Amino acid sequence: MPTIRKRVCNPINEEEIELRRGPWTLEEDTLLIHYIASHGEGHWNMLAKYAGLKRTGKSCRLRWLNYLKPDIKRGNLTPQEQLLILELHSKWGNRWSKIAQHLPGRTDNEIKNYWRTRVQKQARQLNIESNSKTFLDAVRYFWMPRLIQKMEQTSSSSSSSPLINTHNSSSAPSPLPNSNKIASSSLPSSCPLPSKLTNTANHSNGYLSSITNPPCVFPSDSIIPHLPQLPQYPTSPPDHEFGKTAYNTNSIQNNSRFAISSSYDMEGGLNLVENNSGTEAFDISQFDTQMAASDWVLDNMADTLWNMEEI
DNA sequence: AACGCCTTCAACCGCAATTCG
DNA sequence: CCGAATTGCGGTTGAAGGCGT
């Protein structure tokens, strides 16, 4: 039940109204949807008043943009989307709205929540700062490959029984299927962890046991067919450099290997290198150097990393 | 069954940027 | 140019549900 906490001076006609707060009711949602359907978005304060909503304009805007808008995607983030978030965050930091622009149907709020509840949780478990270079390395060398593996896995099984459901178009809150219930033991071993990890980890869930050799190199024929499955990735705006490179189908197909560069800088995020065809691909050449710098976390990571399976 | 803790995410808040008169 | 209104953004909060004991 929404609370009524404030009395504010209405900017339209100076009268004071009770403003509702808290969860939106079905009736409020309906009012908002119908009003926008016939009058369009914008002028949120006026909209709130004329739609008969006892809400602030800000609240109406937020409700519409984050929940009611027809193209909002409900459900868990796909591995592709998670990978993209990790990548874009490494490049832009907490620029949630900017990141959200590259995930159609996803809101900045949703991405922000994902980062805080899933990603930062992992950082805490690793006992490292989520914005530290060490954690970025962990993301790059272990998490991203795992997500790519999931992309492969879901892609290969999607024809029969999709593991990921991200297109629940229902606008009503509902229990969502857990997309993370992927059998660890069935995962391919195309992206092994550094052998150093295997010395400290011996989990029986099958995850670490399936990945025992460094570095993460993706055979082109395993990853290529699946990366283009980011079709919802929008056409790149002028300032968007990542989208036209890392997930460029042709660029990947023109490379015999697909790997993640260890070279990081705050401006550029993941570094991409040009191949001889003029397109770009991840570069694995600096992998060893970076790994050495992160030795300590590798020792600690093995015990916690498998938890990423839950993400 | 009941309780408490934990996680998730919708919603709110404050502030900055932008628009408008 | 200025001030007010509006919009957009990122950080934070708290209700609800899940889960373990």
TrEMBL record:
SMART domains: SANT. The keyword Transcription regulation applies. Keywords: DNA-binding, Nucleus, Repeat, Transcription, Transcription regulation. Residues 16-68, 69-119 form the Myb-like domain. Gene3D superfamilies: Homeodomain-like. Residues 16-68, 69-123 form the HTH myb-type domain. This is Transcription factor MYB62-like. It comes from Ziziphus jujuba var. spinosa.
